[in-house]
Amino acid sequence: MFPLSAAIQQELISLDGVSKVKGERFYRIYAEGDRPDYVYLLDSGLVKASVTGRDDKEIVLSIVSPGHLFGLHGVLLERARSSHAVVLAEAVFHEIPQRSFLQYCEQRPEVWRYLAQVLARRQGELHRKIQLLVLHDVEYRLLTSLLELAELCGPEEPNGSVYSIPLSQEDLADIIGATRETTSNKLNVLARRKLLVLGRRRVVISSLDALRAALAGQSKTATVS
Asked: What is the pTM of this model?
């Protein structure tokens, strides 16, 4: 989903009561059950939205990148938070009071349309995530997530070909629904195939085309078997 336009972002952060917050890694922005007092606009960094299962296992619902709103569901439905949001990579974001946000939207029909698209897109992403977990193995899920995260983070340099994903192996394990050990093994296999380079809380990809080719190969193998 495309980010909000720079003009709308500027209007939002100029609303009454908006505050700017800097959060380090693991900073909890809100938790399940919290009152939906704010909508958030991410300026930099990465944020994950997730829920906790009955076995205390975390299920990652989405990764938020700069220029996007999050915390919308509770605000629009006027219900307590059904998920929690935590900073994955050092982030700067704006807290927009619920009342100011809704009053602004009433004056800007195009923002309502954008919000409808965001919610529909996220619903589709949840359905696709379920399909990935049920129908595909760990390596396929890992390759798919690495491609999506690389495109989300963007290249290190404008028009560059090197993509750096500022996440740990444990972060990636949570995202793909696998154990850290299994994820680490698969990452090392991909590293030996020269598809990526592993660093401290970082995965560097020098060719998205090579990653796409590996994913296509996985799809073909799965189809044949």
From this structure: 0.86
- Tell me the angle at which helices 138-153 and 169-176 cross, rounded to the nearest 10 degrees: 110
Three-state SS letters, 55-103:
CCCEEEEEEECCCCEECHHHHHHCCCCCCEEEEEEEEEEEEEEHHHHHH
Q: Band the pLDDT of 220: cuts 50, 70, 90.
A: low
The Cβ-side half-sphere exposure at 135, using a 13 Å CA radius, reads: 10
Q: Which two tokens stand for residue 201?
A: 């809380």
What distance in Å separates the CA atoms of residue 167 and residue 16, rounded to the nearest whole number? 34
HEC sequence for the chain: CCCCCHHHHHHHHCCCCCEEEEECCCCEEECCCCCCCEEEEEEEEEEEEEEECCCCCEEEEEEECCCCEECHHHHHHCCCCCCEEEEEEEEEEEEEEHHHHHHHHHHCHHHHHHHHHHHHHHHHHHHHHHHHHHHCCHHHHHHHHHHHHHHHHCECCCCCCCEEECCCHHHHHHHHCCCHHHHHHHHHHHHHCCCCEEECCEEEECCHHHHHHHHHHHHHHHHHC
pLDDT digits (tens, 9 = 90+) for 139-168: 999 999 999 999 989 898 888 889 999 999
pLDDT band at 28 (very low <50, low <70, confident <90, very high): very high
